[in-house]
Structures are given as C-alpha cells and as structure tokens.
Amino acid sequence: MGPLIHGCIGGLLLIIYISFRIHSCCSTIQEENEVMVVKSLENQKQMGKSHDIGFLAEAKSKYMHLSDLYEIDNQNASNCGEIIYSKLESNDIVDVSYCTWQEDGDRQPLKGEKVIYTCIPVIDLDRTMDNTLNTAYNAYLSRFCESEANRFVKLRYKPPQNFVYRAIAGNSFAFKYFTTIPYRIFYEILFFFGFNGISDFFWSYKAKRYIFYSQKKIGHEASSYRARYGERDLNPIINHEGGEISENYNSSKDENSMKMSLLNPYNENY
After folding, report:
1. Which residue of 61, 78, 115, 202 has the fewest C-beta atoms within 10 A of its own C-beta?
2. pLDDT tens digits for 176-189?
3. What torsion, rounded to 10 degrees, do the Cα atoms 64, 73, 242, 110 define?
4. Tens digits of per-residue pLDDT, 34-77?
5. What is the pLDDT confidence band of residue 17, given thresholds at 50, 70 and 90?
6. CA 24 from centroid of its chain's CA atoms
7. Where do transmembrane segments lie in this chain (predicted)?
C-alpha cells in the first residue's frame, strides 16, 4: 500500500501543479497595444537582466512568417504611439500632447532561419516637454483624484495600433508545434520531472534572438525631431531581406534616455 499511496500523492501534486499553470500556458505574455509604465533605457535593460525569459514566455509570442516579422519590426520603429497619465486598473486618462518625435534606437537587420524577437519601447522625453507633463499631471489630479491617498498616477506609454512586443518567426517545426497550448502544458510536465532540456534544445536550435530597444525621442517644439505628431518616421526602416539600413538613418545617442520633470513627485520610474 505504501508505494500506491506515494504514487497517488505524487499524481495529485502533479495535477495541482498543472492546474495552477494552465492559466499561464493559455495566456499571452504581452498583448498588442498593451499600455506600459514609462521607464528609462537603463531600467529596461536592468529588468531584462533580472528576468530570465525562458521557453514558456517565448512560446506565448506571436508566430509568423519572416516576411511578416520584417514588416512588424519596421512598423514598431516607424510609429510612435501616445503618452498618457493614468492609474493602474483605471480607464481615466489624460493625454500628454507632443509636437515632434523620432526613432533613435539601434537598428539591425534580422538574419537567420529562426528568429526570436523582442521589442521594448523606451520613451525619451526632452526638456521641452516639462511644462506639458506638469499641465497634464495636474489636470489628471483635478479631474479624477479626490484625496492625497488617491494620487498615485503614472506616466504611461500607449503603443500604436498593431505594435508587437514579442514574436517568433521562421519555417520551424518547433516554432509551429511547440507554441500550441497542448504542448505548453506537456512542457510543464517535462519541467516538473526535469526533462525539459531536450525540448529547450530543439526550441533554440539555430534560432537567433534579437532585442530591439525602440527609443522614441519626443519633444514639444516643431523643429525638435524628424516626424510630426501622428506621422511615421521613415528613417529607421530596414530592408531586412537585403540586410540594409536606410541611407538617411543617423542614431544620435543620449545617455540620459528619459528626462522627466522633477516637479512631479508621483511619477516614480520603476
């Protein structure tokens, strides 16, 4: 009876473990157009180092053809999006207006038969935005905040339509079938028993990982940057199949990747 009881207990623990993980397996890692808190480039990179992105996270990414990923990458770079003030789990927002913007992130052609792609937006607001930020912040407080305890407002980035944070692309058996919900649940079982290494090997075999930090410089003056509000910045577009970057592309570097107004004590960058 001893082995039978131990087997039943082990099976029950496995069922409980899988039950808790099914929701994770069935969800996506980050949806298109999901609003995110504005963070600096340094903070985004630190978060990337502290969070180990493994198979289960990558397998929840969108699976597409390489040609579609090339188009998605250029769309991510050439469109800006919106800046808003809001609180977590609240539909109350105040838009932050701006005049011009440009893409300033490092661009590189996506090469390889299998590509695991990540795009992380980084919003760089220059000093011309200070007055606009404070006006929008105070407008939010006056409209939606009734007390001091209710004033934890965050500056957030609302990406443009069809912005994609994560994607995988290529003609790959692993990419096609390992991303299905049944396999992701099966992977949990492999992981539970410590046999997931074989699956990880085939998933990563010949795959190239790219992380694009999309640095969107934003200003309130008409002459600050290349594209006006609502327009695309065509400079960073890449011919991925030819491995070429736009001839006019010139990425100016700025160590201080986000210059926020110091007059806003509630806009914590975390």
Report:
1. 202
2. 999 998 998 899 88
3. -70
4. 777 777 677 777 666 545 568 888 998 989 999 999 999 999 99
5. low
6. 18
7. 185-205
Task: Kindly state the tokens that stand for 123.
Answer: 């919003």
As given in the structure block, the two tokens for residue 30 are 């980050």
Q: What is the distance between the alpha carbons of residues 35 and 6, in angstroms, rounded to a whole number?
A: 47
Mapping DSSP onto H, E and C, the string for the chain reads CHHHHHHHHHHHHHHHHHHHHHHHHHCCCCCCCCCEECCCHHHHHHHHHHCCCCHHHHHCCEEECHHHHHHHHHHHHHCCCEEEEECCCCCCEEEECCCEEEECCCCCCCCCCEEEEEEEEEEEECHHHHHHHHHHHHHHHHHHCCCHHHCCCEEEEECCCCCCCEEEECCCHHHHHCCCHHHHHHHHHHHHHCCCHHHHHHHHCCEEEEEEEEEEEEECCCCCCCEECCCCCCCCCEECCCCEECCCCCCCCCCCCCCCCCCCCCCCCC
β-sheet bridge partners, residue 166: 118
Whole-angstrom distance, CA of residue 128 vs CA of residue 79 = 21
pLDDT number for residue 257: 33
